[in-house]
User: Which sequence fits this backbone?
């Protein structure tokens, strides 16, 4: 295109020159045509049918891609959004598209309409806020989809992930949703992915497995490492048992090793479906921290309501406090020993005076002759 726009020349040429010029023009036109169809975009590298436009500060997908491109890398650039105009010409042969590390925020409707044979798509390491449900064509052939660390944050996640339920991704077999702050997933999030085989939800802050996950008919590998699971309820264990072809990874979760984990522990010792069961360790209580779940004895699993241990420590503490108070009391006594001695003498003297007075009065009272006198003198 750029070649086409070069000026055709001035008016000072001779007749023979003009003929030559028109021939040159034709050649240039042909060349630019070939460039448009098969040429490599500026600053990109093209080898065979692979085009690589990596880390060259692009802010859009290059428009003039060779129409026979099979593999396209546009990674490490600054493309803020994808839409209908990202792939204006049909690329029948494109199967692999790598767009990681581009700060992509939105993927609009019909973005992949012109890529009918797309099989592998990598959108990892972006900041997606908005993903249109109509981004993929109805008969999409996508099989491997990488959305690792792709989303901006977990706000509106159920809305953002709506495209997974759009019924357009019937061929999808591998889905990588790792390193996203997903937290909670809608129950039926994977229900329209009938061919899903490998699903990674590693490091995604998940606290419970979406209900519908076990209904995905062909699911074979489920990676749930480094999430926020503390226990697996019996209902989940039963569902896993009912799907013997399913294999899971569960290491790196903060397992809570109290009496509630007993069922899971018994199950874990007998199952082969948890590939990394050797690596599961307790996070709480402190006494069992880092202890492998498989090496736990039933007697080590205390219930939170079980006060045995708590009481034991509180008795020891109480004893210590009492001993301390006793020591302080003795110390105070010792330091004040002179004052106390004086005080005791004073009391003794006071007592003695009092006793003498009492004694005297008793003697008077006991004398019936003086009784009336004493009563009168008291008044
Ligand atoms: C690429 O474009 C050229 C010229 O229009 C056409 O002949 C060729 O068939 C196209 N190739 C593909 C794979 O579409
Ligand atoms: C997502 O895109 C739709 C349509 O383009 C728009 O209406 C909506 O406001 C966008 N949402 C966000 C959170 O950007
Ligand atoms: C997805 O991309 C990340 C990094 O961008 C990579 O580590 C991971 O292996 C990819 N996942 C798949 C399934 O290819
Ligand atoms: C998520 O991102 C949006 C848009 O930037 C922002 O308004 C919102 O506060 C963020 N939420 C969290 C929990 O960070
Ligand atoms: C886990 O995911 C978060 C994003 O949610 C990311 O920032 C962090 O680097 C990931 N951790 C690892 C070890 O990949
Ligand atoms: C599925 O995951 C397992 C374990 O991570 C891996 O060995 C296998 O190659 C994956 N299959 C595909 C089709 O990627
Ligand atoms: C899981 O699905 C079943 C029906 O399939 C439903 O009865 C149950 O309430 C669901 N559980 C949760 C936690 O949503
Ligand atoms: C152990 O698992 C097998 C099947 O894998 C099952 O038949 C058996 O009942 C289980 N035993 C216990 C004690 O759960």
Assistant:
């Amino acid at each position: 295109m750029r070649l086409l726009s070069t000026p055709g020349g001035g008016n000072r040429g001779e007749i023979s020159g003009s003929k030559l010029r028109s021939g040159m023009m034709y050649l240039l036109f042909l060349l630019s045509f070939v460039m448009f169809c098969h040429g490599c975009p500026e600053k990109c590298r093209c080898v065979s049918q692979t085009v690589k436009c990596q880390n060259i500060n692009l802010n859009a997908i290059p428009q003039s891609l060779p129409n026979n491109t099979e593999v396209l890398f546009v990674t490490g650039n600054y493309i803020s959004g994808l839409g209908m105009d990202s792939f204006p010409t049909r690329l029948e042969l494109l199967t692999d598209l790598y767009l990681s590390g581009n700060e992509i925020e939105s993927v609009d409707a019909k973005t992949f309409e012109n890529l009918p044979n797309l099989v592998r798509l990598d959108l990892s390491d972006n900041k997606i806020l908005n993903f249109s449900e109509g981004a993929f064509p109805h008969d999409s052939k996508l099989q491997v989809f990488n959305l690792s660390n792709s989303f901006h944050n977990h706000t509106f996640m159920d809305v953002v992930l709506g495209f997974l339920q759009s019924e357009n991704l019937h061929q999808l077999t591998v889905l990588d949703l790792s390193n996203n702050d997903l937290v909670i997933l809608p129950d039926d999030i994977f229900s329209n992915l009938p061919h899903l085989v490998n699903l990674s939800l590693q490091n995604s802050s998940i606290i419970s497995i979406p209900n519908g996950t076990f209904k995905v008919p062909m699911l074979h590998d489920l990676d749930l490492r480094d999430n926020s699971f503390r226990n697996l309820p019996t209902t989940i264990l039963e569902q896993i048992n009912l799907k013997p072809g399913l294999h899971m990874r569960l290491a790196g979760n903060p397992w809570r090793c109290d009496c509630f984990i007993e069922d899971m522990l018994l199950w874990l010792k007998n199952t082969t479906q948890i590939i990394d069961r050797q690596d599961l360790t307790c996070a709480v209580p402190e006494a069992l921290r880092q202890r492998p779940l498989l090496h736990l004895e039933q007697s080590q699993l205390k219930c939170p309501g079980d006060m045995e241990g708590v009481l034991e420590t509180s008795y020891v503490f109480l004893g210590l406090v009492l001993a301390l108070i006793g020591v302080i009391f003795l110390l105070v006594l010792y330091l004040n020993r002179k004052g106390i001695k004086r005080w005791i003498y004073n009391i003794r003297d006071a007592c003695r005076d009092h006793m003498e007075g009492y004694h005297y009065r008793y003697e008077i009272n006991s004398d019936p002759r003086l009784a009336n006198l004493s009563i009168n003198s008291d008044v």
